[in-house]
């Protein structure tokens, strides 16, 4: 028996929606998700109340994973806050090079979901706020004079890197963004 058929319907729905909403966008049909998950439509409504609830849960799961990826990347870079911040762009370069890279899941969802009250928007906004706080904390440690503003700039560079990574894949956007991030962070403080 495979893991896919052995897991429970809720987990199979999340796994299928995670894969399909990334590869095809949040507009992917419910039938495709149900087929990939090998579950009945009733399971979708029992566990998530519908497709919107499933999308929101997928975003909750992936934002937690991606936030941890930022933290892990920065921890692995050592103790220097400057190096830790720049390591994010090295990680993004690796992400962009993966064969299944399709851009930023959160930017795609925000653009595709036109209802401003869709629960996905709150989840992506809160995720960006947490990443911003993480960046700002490092900038404070680095002695930056305007850490909140610099964190805004780094967030823009991260979003731009992911967008350019899918729309202009051979332009090495992570390297270019890293150079700009180096300027935003500023010189090493003694």
Automatic annotation (TrEMBL):
Domain HTH tetR-type: 7-66
GO molecular function: DNA-binding transcription factor activity; transcription cis-regulatory region binding
Keyword terms: DNA-binding
PANTHER family: HTH-TYPE TRANSCRIPTIONAL REGULATOR RUTR, HTH-TYPE TRANSCRIPTIONAL REPRESSOR BDCR
Keyword RNA-binding found: no
Record protein name field: AcrR family transcriptional regulator
SUPFAM superfamilies tied to this protein: Homeodomain-like (SSF46689), Tetracyclin repressor-like, C-terminal domain (SSF48498)
Source organism superkingdom: Bacteria
Annotated InterPro entries: Homeodomain-like_sf (IPR009057), HTH-type_TetR-like_transc_reg (IPR050109), HTH_TetR (IPR001647), Tet_transcr_reg_TetR-rel_C_sf (IPR036271), TetR_C_31 (IPR041583)
DNA-binding residues (ranges): 29-48
């Amino acid at each position: 028996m495979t893991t896919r058929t052995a897991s429970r319907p809720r987990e199979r729905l999340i796994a299928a929606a995670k894969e399909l909403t990334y590869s095809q966008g949040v507009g992917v049909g419910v039938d495709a998700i149900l087929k990939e998950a090998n579950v009945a439509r009733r399971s979708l409504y029992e566990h998530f109340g519908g497709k919107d609830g499933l999308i929101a849960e997928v975003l909750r799961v992936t934002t937690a994973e991606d936030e941890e990826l930022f933290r892990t990347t920065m921890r692995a870079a050592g103790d220097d806050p400057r190096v830790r911040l720049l390591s994010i762009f090295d990680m993004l370069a690796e992400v962009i090079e993966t064969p299944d890279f399709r851009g930023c899941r959160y930017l795609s969802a925000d653009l595709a979901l036109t209802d401003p009250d869709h629960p996905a928007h709150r989840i992506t906004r809160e995720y960006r706020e947490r990443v911003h706080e993480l960046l700002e904390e490092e900038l404070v440690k680095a002695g930056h004079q305007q850490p909140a503003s610099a964190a805004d700039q780094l967030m823009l560079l991260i979003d731009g890197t992911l967008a350019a990574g899918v729309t202009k894949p051979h332009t090495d956007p992570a390297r270019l963004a890293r150079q700009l991030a180096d300027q935003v962070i500023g010189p090493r403080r003694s």
